Amino acid sequence: MIAALMDQVVYGKETDCVYGQAAALWTNVPKIVLKRYIADQALSAEIDQHYRQKNMIRSIWYNKDLNVKRFISVTRYFFGHVSNYRRYYFDKEHASLNLQG
Fold first, then answer.
1. Residues sharing a CB contact under 8 Å with residue 8, sequence separation 6 or more, in sequence order
2. pTM
3. Residue 80 has what pLDDT?
4. Which runs of E-coded beta strand occur in the chain?
5. Which one, of 32, 31, 3, 30, lies nearest residue 18 by Cα?
6. Which residues, listed in sequence order, are joined to residue 26 by a DSSP beta bridge?
7. What span, in angstroms and rounded, lies between the C-alpha atoms of 36 and 12?
């Protein structure tokens, strides 16, 4: 994607837009958060299938840019997701029913 942007901006090359046809999971949320907090069973099964097939993309875990400092930063980011979901997530339907009655 960056190469196409560079070709267009720097070199003035115009290319056609290409769309992917395959389905994939693009996430920056830890798997434990996805498994625990997604209530839709069909969506959860689809996510599990993508994980089993290793058909997922995590743009935050770019292996060529994973030095020690970045590894620690990304790991803290992931643990932050887990702790924030534990602390702040609640079932909104259930909570709104309690407030009404």
1. 14, 15
2. 0.64
3. 93
4. 25-26, 56-57
5. 3
6. 57
7. 47
Amino acid residing at 97: L
Round to whole Å and give the CA distance between 10 and 8: 6
Torsion from C-alpha of 46, 50, 55, 58, nearest 10 degrees: 90
Closest CA to 17 of 26, 28, 27, 8: 8
Q: How far is it, in rounded angstroms, from Cα 29 to Cα 68?
A: 20
Look at strands 25-26 and 56-57 and give their pairing.
Answer: parallel
- Identify the bridge partners of residue 2 per DSSP, sorted by sequence position: none
Would you state the structure tokens that stand for residue 6, as one six-digit string? 């560079």
Q: What would the DSSP string read from start to end of 61-76?
A: --GGG--HHHHHHHHH
**H helix and E strand count, the chain:** 5, 2
Tell me the pLDDT tens digit for each residue of 20-68. 888 889 888 888 898 888 888 999 999 999 999 999 888 888 878 889 9
